[in-house]
């Protein structure tokens, strides 16, 4: 199972949009020994995969309470109504805009290839061990000096 982080993909839909467009490419720290390319399912999970209506505010993102106007004068999270009631932003247990989120598996796929970056001094024996596991070694050579890459504007 791979956790999809909210920093780059705020919602599972954001990840799915990119995956449908360019495929799935994830950096992993280790390849599970029992993973078989083309056969093993990989599950994707996200901390906000399930969205439920917040029971405190009933999905409105705010709720109304009676309050002494002096208690909340100048607070950003409250709006005074003429009736002596106050509209308060709901912050109950992680409510965001009337919704609460929970982690879950949201998708699965079968990898068609796994590539592992290896140093140029990787022996042929080490590379062959990777290939036997269905992992293609990608040799990366260190530049001896700073290399200036040309950058062309995109029109």
Tell me what the structure shows.
- By secondary structure, the chain is of the alpha/beta class.
- It folds into 3 domains: 1-52 and 100-112, no CATH class; 55-94, no CATH class; 116-143, no CATH class.
- Helices cover 15% and strands 32% of the residues.
- The protein contains 3 helices and 8 strands.
- The chain has helices at 12-22, 69-72, 124-132, and strands at residues 2-3, 42-53, 62-66, 78-80, 85-89, 99-109, 114-119, 135-140.
Distance N to C terminus: 39 Å
Give the number of domains: 3
Provide the succession of SSEs: EHEEHEEEEHE
Uncertain stretches of 5 or more adjacent residues: none
Q: How many individual β-strands?
A: 8
Gross morphology is elongated
Give me the secondary-structure category: alpha/beta
What is the helix content?
10-25%
Beta-strand residue percentage: 25-35%
Supply Rg.
Answer: 25 Å
What is the strand arrangement across the widest sheet? 1-2-6
> How would a textbook summarize the main sheet?
3 strands, mixed
The residue-averaged pLDDT reads 84
Number of helices: 3
Q: How would you sum up this structure in a few lines?
A:
By secondary structure, this protein is of the alpha/beta class.
Indicate the topology.
Blueprint lengths: L1 E2 L8 H11 L19 E12 L8 E5 L2 H4 L5 E3 L4 E5 L9 E11 L4 E6 L4 H9 L2 E6 L15
Parallel strand pairs: 1-2, 7-8
Antiparallel strand pairs: 2-6, 3-5, 4-5
């Amino acid at each position: 199972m791979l956790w999809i982080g909210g920093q780059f993909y705020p919602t599972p839909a954001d990840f799915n949009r990119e995956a449908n467009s360019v495929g799935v490419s994830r950096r992993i720290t280790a390849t599970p020994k029992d993973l078989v390319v083309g056969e093993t399912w990989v599950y994707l999970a996200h901390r906000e995969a399930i969205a439920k209506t917040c029971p405190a505010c009933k999905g409105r993102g705010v709720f109304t309470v009676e309050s002494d106007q002096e208690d909340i004068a100048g607070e950003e999270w409250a709006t005074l109504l003429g009736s002596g009631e106050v509209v308060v932003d709901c912050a109950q247990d992680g409510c965001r805009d009337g919704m609460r989120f929970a982690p879950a598996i949201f998708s699965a796929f079968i990898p068609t290839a796994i590539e592992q970056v290896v140093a140029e001094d990787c022996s042929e024996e080490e590379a062959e061990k990777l290939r036997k596991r269905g992992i293609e070694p990608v040799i990366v050579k260190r530049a001896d000096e700073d290399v200036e890459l040309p950058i062309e504007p995109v029109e």
